[in-house]
Design a protein that fits this description.
This protein has 221 residues and is mostly helical. Helices cover 75% and strands 0% of the residues. Helix 9 runs antiparallel to helix 10 and helix 10 runs antiparallel to helix 11. The longest helix is centred in the N-terminal third of the chain and has 21 residues. It is globular and about 50 Å long. The relative contact order is 0.10.
Length: 221
């Protein structure tokens, strides 16, 4: 009963969280995200140490072990509305965790990936796999990081909505692809597209990130 009630409030909470982010009230944004997630049945530890992070990462790697790209692309679509709401809130809190709660970021990423594997792919799943690729890149696994970055882009094509295009392309072409075998000029084309789509769908945060990446690339050419 409580879960059903909170589901109807998720869009309003998303707007509230984004307003906090726009006003650089990151602490309030994270607190609100964690509150809504708890109401939806998902609780993260108040402080995630290295053992917890390693456990989450290993569990996610085990779930992905043996799954080819083709098999992952054939995952069913997510039908559980409560799980979709969880994914929606998690996608919003990603940038906040990157800025101020780095201990929580791997947990959020791993949960989003495992949720997609267990319950199905939604239009939010691309950013989950893009961030997983980003996380692998940070650990030095550039090959697998690039693999999941490309997989994230392929998931974008499965859904008509462009809501997650800007955020996903920003991560893949801002952080992953240019360091593999793609030129900065290639990334600039994708970042330009992503910034335009971001402005169209109201994803101003990542649209600005794309513009920043574009001018950084331009300065290096």
């Amino acid at each position: 009963k409580h879960a059903v009630k909170i589901l109807h409030k998720v869009p309003s909470y998303v707007c509230l969280i984004k307003s906090y982010i726009a006003r650089v009230k990151i602490k309030e944004a994270i607190s609100t995200c964690l509150y809504v997630l708890a109401k939806l049945g998902l609780q993260f530890p108040k402080s995630a140490g290295m053992p917890t992070t390693i456990r989450y990462v290993i569990k996610t790697k085990m779930r992905l072990r043996g799954k080819t790209d083709e098999r992952l692309k054939q995952l069913p679509e997510l039908e559980d509305k409560s799980k979709e709401a969880v994914m929606r809130i998690l996608s919003v809190v990603l940038s906040c965790c990157y800025l101020t709660r780095q201990d929580l970021l791997p947990l959020v990423i791993c949960h989003m990936v495992r949720c997609s594997l267990k319950y199905g792919i939604s239009h939010i799943s691309p950013i989950a796999f893009a961030m997983y690729g980003f996380m692998l890149n940070i650990t030095g696994d550039f090959k697998e990081g690039y693999r999941f970055g490309k997989l994230a882009l392929s998931f974008l094509k499965k859904f008509e909505t462009k809501e997650m295009h800007c955020q996903t392309i920003c991560i893949v072409w801002g952080y992953i692809a240019p360091w593999r075998d793609n030129s900065f000029r290639d990334s600039m084309e994708h970042l330009t597209y992503a910034s335009k789509v971001g402005m169209e769908v109201g994803d101003h945060e990542y649209a600005m990130h794309c513009v920043t990446f574009f001018f950084l690339r331009l300065a290096l050419l």
